[in-house]
Design goal:
59% of the residues lie in helices and 16% in strands.
Length: 283
């Protein structure tokens, strides 16, 4: 806007100077020539002042814009720092509480009170049964986890398409598979639950070949995917101190197997690709 205004000022000044010269030539006299040159000098002097003012104002606006950007970035860093601290404190609390739960479960196991153990576990995970799962993968850990998640998904009218090619003996710890598949599936359920009933679908593929495990999860989503300053995905959930662990937990776990995680989003479809290497394939 300022640049356009300055161009118009210069153009107008040139036109005025040209007009003064034309008029002065129609009535030539010493006094007219003096007045003409004086008028030209004043216009040139005014243009120089206007140009310097333009440069000063432009620099000031640029500085204000940079300050606003720096201020916004500083605020984002502050928020992320507070969230990380809250997540750390929450993780300590959850670890402490979980340890107490394990102590109690170990007591039930030692006393062979298996029914009480089942009831305690149901209370911990929310009371969902795992018997709904029909498309068995051939792996007990995967079947148990998907069975529980699908019981929850069924209540939300979410359909699941699967493609499995795995066995019960995988070169990965069940504990790690639970973290990876469980968190990935939770994120997918959270995303599709915001869609209309007919749009709620999840595609899950888990395959292993030559000791290389590939997990691919594909689901639609609504809204926009937000990223942090480091390019990481940001959760839009209210309780970020808990839900912020999802993808970061997956990433940390697959590093144990020199794995890779790739996230793509296109046309409101989200795809998570995870590749992990068994012992003989790790470099």
């Amino acid at each position: 806007m300022l640049k356009t205004a300055m161009i118009l000022v210069h153009a107008g000044s040139i036109w005025i100077i040209f007009t003064i010269i034309v008029l002065s030539r129609q009535s030539v006299s010493d006094s007219n020539l003096i007045m003409t040159f004086l008028a030209i000098f004043i216009y040139i002097f005014q243009n120089v002042i206007n140009y310097k003012l333009f440069i000063t104002i432009k620099k000031k606006n640029d500085s204000l814009q940079k300050f606003a950007i720096y201020k916004q970035q500083a605020e984002m860093y502050r928020i992320q720092s507070e969230e990380r601290e809250a997540m750390w404190l929450e993780s300590r609390r959850l670890y402490h509480d979980f340890k107490q739960h394990l102590i109690c479960l170990k007591g039930y196991s030692e006393e062979r009170q298996y029914h009480a153990m089942d009831e305690y576990l149901d209370a911990m995970i929310g009371g969902y049964a795992t018997s709904y799962w029909e498309n068995k993968s051939g792996n007990t850990t995967v079947d148990s986890l998907i069975g529980y998640k699908m019981t929850k998904a069924r209540d939300l009218d979410i359909s699941l398409q699967t493609d499995f090619d795995i066995s019960n003996n995988l070169p990965f710890e069940d504990f790690d598979l639970t973290i990876i598949i469980g968190n990935a599936f939770d994120n997918a359920i959270e995303a599709v639950a915001k869609l209309t009933a007919k749009e709620r679908s999840i595609k899950l593929s888990i395959k292993i070949a030559q000791n290389i495990l590939t997990i691919m999860l594909h689901n639609p989503y609504a809204g926009e995917i937000r990223r942090g300053l480091a390019g990481n995905l940001l959760s839009d959930k209210e309780d970020r101190t808990i839900h912020g662990f999802g993808l970061s937990s997956i990433k940390k776990t697959i590093q144990k197997y020199h794995g890779q995680m790739k996230i793509t989003s296109d046309n409101h479809f989200f795809q998570l690709l995870i590749i992990m290497y068994g012992q003989s394939n790790r470099s």
